[in-house]
Fold each of these.
Amino acid sequence: MAKLTPKDIDAKIAAGLDESGDWIKVGMSTCGMAAGAGEVFSTLQQEAKKRNLEVRIKKCGCQGMCYAEPLVEVHCAGLPDVVYGRVDKETAIKILEKHISAKTLVNDNIYEVRTRRQA
Amino acid sequence: METDRKIILLADTEQSQQDKLRDFYTSFANQIKDKGLEDSVSLVRASDIGIYGKGFAVKIFPRGIVYTGVNESDIGAIIDASVKGQGTVERLLFSEEPKQIRIVLRNCGVIDPESIDEYIACRGYGALKKILSGMNPAGVIEEMKKSGLRGRGGAGYPTWMKWKFTRESQGDRKYVICNADEGDPGAYMDRSVLEGDPHSVIEGLIIAGYAIGAGMGYMYIRAEYPLAVERVKKAIEQAYECGLLGKNILGTDFSFDIDIRLGAGAFVCGEETALIASIEGKRGTPRPRPPYPSVSGLWGKPTAINNVETLANVPYIILEGGDKFALIGTEKSKGTKVFALTGKVRNSGLVEVPMGITLREIVFDIGGGMLGDKPIKAVQTGGPSGGVIPVDRLDTPVDYENLQKLGSIMGSGGMIVMDESDCIVDIAKFYLGFCVEESCGKCAPCRIGGYQMLNLLNGIAEGSGSLEDLDKLRRLALAMQRASLCALGQTAANPVMSTLRYFEQEYREHIINRKCRSHKCRSLMTYSIIQDKCKRCRVCVINCPVNAIEGDREKGFFIDVSKCVKCGKCFEVCKFQAIAKE
């Protein structure tokens, strides 16, 4: 990466975080990894590819709700942002099939729901 | 269109009646069907919506209306008002200001910690740019002074003062160090920040370096945090590539380098003088202060040492201004504090709360209350240097001064919730035992005093204690506090002192009645067989390692107390709960 100038930083800040399109974030800190976030992350990647879903699978840090790890945050057009907790392989697949494909939320694993942050 | 669809979340805020939630869900779904709304609504069961102890909750999107204490009879009214119409059912409406404020954890769980681009997109390195394009070091320190930020590592020393003294000290080279040797049992705030948002700490360290006139910074991270080390390493590399570290940062004449040093598993290395010795390649033992590191620190040069959480606050303060930061918190403790909430609490995890919030709010409103709804007994704060705060002080606002008045400390932010099954003597023993193990052995009060206190505590827990021991404990604690070389020894007795202050009765029960009300101290327990419940299956007889259970199937079985070693095996194996433990 090239060295940044103050102007570059201003431009990047002005552009803000790229949260376009549908995406899934998996909490991949020690607390998440210990609860199985690694497996959830790779399952999401593989299964999304299999299903040809246009969704970005991203990593993030600890959201704080360590009791409910692995945590998976899902942003999908037309739905509020949802944080799913205690996600395992099966739930990960449900998230892709129901939330991303069918646009309905998955029962029993929701830990937080927020309306879209205004950037 | 999807956006026209309403999403209705149902949650049980008591979290104890999951099958009832299913029934509630079914009747809600039926009523939606009856009203012919099933195509425009999707109904979902949630596990947790951040509200506790308020019965069933219903949250309706996109408007985000929350109802609590909802009964089945209210469903119709809610559907009519807020699903069909645009109104609300006033009497069930729930509104509450969010209790958590995220400054330190602003990016944790939001950005990819391995991407500098995402950090910059969230205004990262904006603070660095700001100071390099027009703030002089004195201005930075002035801004820190306005913010009132105090060290988050435990002692709570004002950050601006530390920086000012280091800046004013004479020296051809100066250093800044980030103390990431987080060692308190049950505390992991720093780990989460380093793993979730490493650049914020790096940016804070660069700003600290600029403010005090240092050209070199060290991150001292404990080796037990491999993921944190990996992510910090990656972040430092990225910062070098982008020209945010190294020579002539952002085209100015300010140059700054950062290197990582790993702690090798000694708790005492979190103490600043021991940490410095450790970086210098010496054995990690503390030395007397003064001179303070701000005068003579790393390699004899002026050095500022700040905790991870302190540094993560710095970019926010520079960007938003110290005055804005100072609006949060209490008179003498500004900003927020991250706590690692653990123990017998339902939702363990990290919370970031404004200073001045009460312990009760943290445990019950954010933590969701006690596990299994057992009564709360106490909260331990501050790790092995802290103390135990009893239930009747839970409404004290949390800040540096108040916690100190209660005989505890803010510490680095561990918060362990205890219920009636936790024995106070056992807790004191655990923390003191930790400090005895971790004592470096350099000074006698800590090395010998800690060991002797632990012996006394062990005696009390085993039933051989006497009331004089309590006075001896107090005297030894005082000697350790006054005469130990570093904070480890000075504060090691705090858990014992604070439990003696609030729970002396429990110590006395151990000594006089030879009883442990929490059934934790094994030596004080007696086991017996409840004849009415005993089915005479002989499972306990077979499992007893010392053949202390005698008798036969006709007459029944009895435990020979003189042979019993109180291992508890019979209690574990009995299927009929026929073993009494007292």
Amino acid sequence: MIADDAGLIGAIREVFESVDPMPADLPERIRFAIALRDLDAELARFASESDEAAIAVRGMEESRTITFDSDSLTIMIRIDGNADGTVRVDGWLAPAQAGRVEMRRVDNSIAVTADEAGRFAFLSVPRGTARLIVGLLGEGSNGRPNGEKSVITPALILLAAE
Amino acid sequence: MIMVDNGVTVPGRVSEDDRRARIAGLVSAARDGHPEAVSELVSELTPVLWQVARATGLGAADAEDVIQTVWMSLLSHLEGIRTPAALTAWLVITTRREAWRVKKADRKQSPADQEWLIAVPDPRPGSEESVITADEYRQLWAAFLTLPQRCQELLRIVAFVPRPDYDEVAATLHMPRGSVGPTRGRCLDKLRTALGPEEGIR
């Protein structure tokens, strides 16, 4: 029984939480946008629609390769499930170059180095939503350093093998 | 967080005083440039802003864009914001203004964007926490939909803005636009009338 204003307002709140709830990943996307605000990052896109459809990547059963394109860089990654339920991500940068590759997650980030051939690997990452941010330290086309130029991928949902 | 009649919070939830103290700390840390503080504020207040944006009738994708824009814009306005109430007020008022602006700019909202209007709500799982029964729930929803649009918007915002922050928001929400604006009390009275005297929710 709801006798007073506060009770009635509480009930309205319950109804709307049920009928039109906030998308669960909205805060994460906003946090991400904020984190990138001061980062002069170039956004990479899925190279093909079939890749885009496969952003939820399940390891082990469906080891697969996904390609991201940006103006200055192509990032390819392959995702495999580890036996312990984590995920392994191997990647290649093209054109081949050294850089710093960060896997940014909601609550933490892990960084690895890409070698001169553009190869990098995250051996064991937990499942969840992640983005890759590639920081390139190489020289620009005019022979001068690029500075900290960054390329960021859309969010990937990494699923461990079941 | 549902406040029960006498101001005692539902067991297991943080008390309103604790919440305010925590948010005050986050506001201050955010002003000092700590990104984790901003992150926590986003987690805490985005659900409120979602309801505020959707209460204008804005589609889901536009609502998300509006809310993201508002958070970005907050980052350049943090200097002037000192209290949790001021933060909530700034966010709610800015979200509402921006949502109405976008909605007016794009009159043709897809019907799918309003599908919650016809959804028949089911009682949520874990309903021991619920303050109403399943029947009351459906009666309330049916009655709510008979209210004038402005009352629907006002009550939906009121339901999500934390109680102590509400006063800072109220003045703007009650602002009449060419006619007498709805007040919280008048809209609640209308809702009670729509529910009818014999219904479970009095």
Amino acid sequence: MVTVDLSVKMSGLKSPNPFWVASGPPSNTLYQAHKAFEAGWGGFVWKTIGAPILNVTNRYGGIDYGGKRVVGFNNIELISDRPLSVNLKEIAEAKKRWPDRLVVVSLMVESKRQVWHEIVKRTQDTGCDAIELNYGCPHGMSERGMGSAVGQVPEYCTMITEWVMEAAKIPVLVKLTPNVTNIVTSARAVKQAKADGISMINTINSIMGVDLDSLQTQPQVHGKGGHGGYAGPAVKPVGLNLVSQVAKDSEVGLPISAIGGVETWRDAAEYMLLGASTVQVCTGIMKFGFRIVEDMIDGMKHWMEEKGFQSPHDFIGKSVSRISDYKDFNIMYKTIAEIDYDKCIKCNLCYVACEDGTHQAIELVRENGQSVPKILEEECVGCRMCELICPVHCITMEEVDRNLGVKSWAQIVAENPGIDENWETMEAWRKKHNFFIH
Amino acid sequence: MGESWRAEKLPPETLQKNFVEITPPLTDEEALVESNRCLFCYDAPCMRACPTHINIPSFIKKIATGNLKGSARVIMESNFLGATCARVCPVDELCEGSCVYEPFNKPIMIGRLQRYATDAMIAKNWHLFEPGSPTGKRVACVGSGPAGLSCAAELAKLGHKVTIFEKREMAGGLDTYGIVVFREPREISLKEVQMVQDLGVEFRTKVEVGKEISTQELLTTYDAVFLGLGLGRVPPLGIPGENLAGVYDALDFVESTRTQPIHKIEVGRRVAILGAGNTAVDAATISKRLGAEHVLILYRRGEDEMSAYRFEYEFAKNEGIEYRLFTAPVRILGNHRVEAIECVRTQLSGLDATGRRAAVSIPGSEFTIPIDMVIRATGQHKYLQLLDNLNVKHEKGRILINTETGQTSNPKIFAGGDCVLGPGAMAATVIAVEHGKIGAKGIHHLLTPQKQAK
């Protein structure tokens, strides 16, 4: 068995493991830093310090699904509301007490060169390991020209990062907002300013809901509401996609610390396979406490042992190359649903999903006093809906060898001019290749 | 012996505790978690297993979305006695027993969720149904038990004018008089009666057909008649000593707990129940909870032949009831009161008329058990005379019907509930409710043939 070492290197930093506490409510105080490091977190991104602010009450919102609470979470909390001097003093103490861990400090001040220079200097004087620039907060701070108001304009991203780099003697990570059309543009902008790394994603603009009794939006502050930052497990797919896009871009080439719905080692491993060197967790800790890192470390170690990875660097980015364009997918690849009747409980959710929602390729047959779903192989387009809805995982998509080789859309268009414009050409091609559509 | 036959009265607070509903209602949180656990199966086996075919996935989904009123409506449109059935249905044998979770997880608590929705309906006094536009037809329902109530409600929804004849003081039949209090309080049954009344159904209580109203008048006044007679009291066993003080009919005994204050009911120190069906379990567990020291169930066959539901049998054993199987009573001994019961050991032989294996006495195996009270729970009387007067075909008192329509040999007369059940058939409120629905459909078809879709 391999001996696993979870330590990772990123942007000139060395972290004992890839799990960091993200900037946010769990990283507000020295007390929390102690608790986090005691629990085993490798890094601690101090909640953003900078301009003076006041917070409101009722600042968090949650979305429940099927009785499960807070599958999505949002907040309208601003940056730290504690005086700068208090934060700086505590940061220094945290670093002194935990020399082998990473203390990263998130910063946000008004967009003036002098102000940025000053905050960077005062921050690095604490002895902290790195700085993270908060270009992401989508609420409150953006109305004052900070946070996502910077992150949404690539030129501002470059300009402010340049100011920071002028003063910084320690690594600088830039935290990007997902509330843009193309996040790669933002990433290139900070690369241009010579940042050392990227943290992503910050939270997504969101309204959590409307209370059907009071008709107030959620969360509400004395009758008023507005958009807040969306986070939690529900945003993970969005984060995975954006991280993969930046990781794949050859112009960016910066290490990534991934954020967005990480709660378990599995989430972390997925982000890392798509290019992240470290992951950061906020909502997961807000829900369950710092203790969740124990299984993140334990679970990832076991998975790495099983996979034969000695170091996270053996798998960081390993799945990035699989990110392709639709036109390059193999159109001849064919799968058909197969039901394992030993496990099937005859709930028939596959049937109704197929019959009403997708492609009418499952029939219900009465057998021994039960209604039993049967795949109509000739009709099955291999869409996978039944596999997804099955509560007992008894449906698998089995590959069918149609002996048609490998052919992508790009190849088909190249070989059959006009097929993308003419339905008759398409029908002729289908007929020739016995390419069934439902 | 003096008064020593009597069990010592339990303290009022113990009695009170012993006779409150055993199963607590689900809390809002429990209902939310449980309703969300339901998979929302398609062509769900629970729905097929329910004799009234309640759309169970639909009513549970509605609980999950916070649409409790809709949930109650879904239940009640298939089963007008949904509140009672939520409490007394043998769910292990029906819906919950067929839940797809059954093999690998806890089945959904369908009964308790149904109670959650119907409790809300009762608490908030929702009126979920309206009488149909009047058809001008008049229907008589004889008996106000679950079959009669269900039939009357369905007919009223279709616009027929329904009168229910009930010989007892209160309507509801066994639901009102015959369910043990710790399974269902009487108010639930009476609320269901009220809901039938709200649909414009007329109740004529203390009116017995054949006495206060003649069968002739019934048949000439009404366009159709539904017989939901149920069954009568427990017939005598035909053994010596049955008339001694201290020998009870199980139905009377159960009924006393629903019509009298619990502390006034007397029970013997040592009680023997004759029979091992569900009513025997009721009588036995009531005796125990009233303070009887030793409660025996005497049954001439074995465990496999018992007609009690498995969960009732388990419940009785958990309550400390002693089963003496393969034991038949020979005679009850005593001067004025019961003092002992003489029994004989039995063994099983070939099949009897009811399809069960017959029990035969083992000669010379007689023995005597000292006892203070005997409760007969060995089946129920059938209303032979009334059936003959109404001129409907029956088999030893079991009314013969067309099971698709509920129609008897007299085309104007329909029937359902316990009075049509054959030997060994499952008797349950939910089955009577379905019979009532079938009868209502049959009657509607008879009365308004031109309006039928087919």
Amino acid sequence: MKRLFPILSIITAVFLAYALFRALVVAPADALQGEVYRIIYYHVPSAWTAFLLFFINFIASIQYLVRAKASTQNVARWVVIAIGVIGVGATFLPQVQQMLPTGMRPSAVATTVLMIPAFYFLIGWLFPGERLDVLAVTSAEVGVVFCTIVLVTGPIWARPVWGIWWAPGDIRLTSTLVLWLIYVSYLVLRRFSSSAQTQMLAAALAVFGALDVPLVYFSIWFFRTQHPQPVIGGGGSMDPRMLQTLLISWLAFLCFAFLICWSRFRLELLQREVEQAHAMESLVGAGVTAKPSMPLTRSSR
Amino acid sequence: MNAIKFLFAAYIATWLIHGFYIGTLMRRFSRARRQFSELEKGK
């Protein structure tokens, strides 16, 4: 594993450099916006990556909340399966298809719905026990970093195109800011609360916070907004070179996000080991004899 | 077009934010490692 990280870092760096080359050189200029539209290659992949990380945080938080009782865990498992089956089946009903916004493909909706059970079982299998909570805090923190980039690059793009930095009251912009604030408050709660219930409270906050993600994503379909309509999955058209560059940029940022998450995950494990060892020292100092539940290891270093 | 400066500003801002976050990660890592080795020495 120690060798894998530097190898993946080099691959990611090459990938990011290639994405940058394509964004600046290969992709053609936009007919209306000129060169400044190339901000899309950083703005949109950062937004998609943030959404994915918040989704992972949501699933990990749900798993963390339900795992306390075996019966709740079983119910949650069946609910998730039902969501997958009913959700996919419903997207092929003509009545449901009529309700979808223009340009939104039923297959895209079905794939998104299928991600819920797929991620639920994958995360539950890969991150047993306390590691679920570690994954939740990791994905929230890295998600906030990517969401910050969205909120910074968006106004920089808006200024030359719209003539303003920010459109007050615009639902896409406001809901994204609210999403960022929710996850910042999640991190603040985790950082400064010393209650034994902090992890549970944070998981509950994350579940409610995740409800804002669909609102952010679908706001441009359902509301009148200054923000442009989607060009992918929304009935718009895009030059194939632009589309390829956008997807390559997203893949490169996904690899980058994976590496950052990996480091943050290891850091969290190490910090928890140190905290536990400090707690054990305090107990021994107070004359209490107890065996550590997690001995000091070098596993997370 | 003068708008090109906004393009570079957005790209630079992105990497500054990532760089800042990676910097904080490295600082927290070294602090946790130092605490860990101090605890090991004290055992």
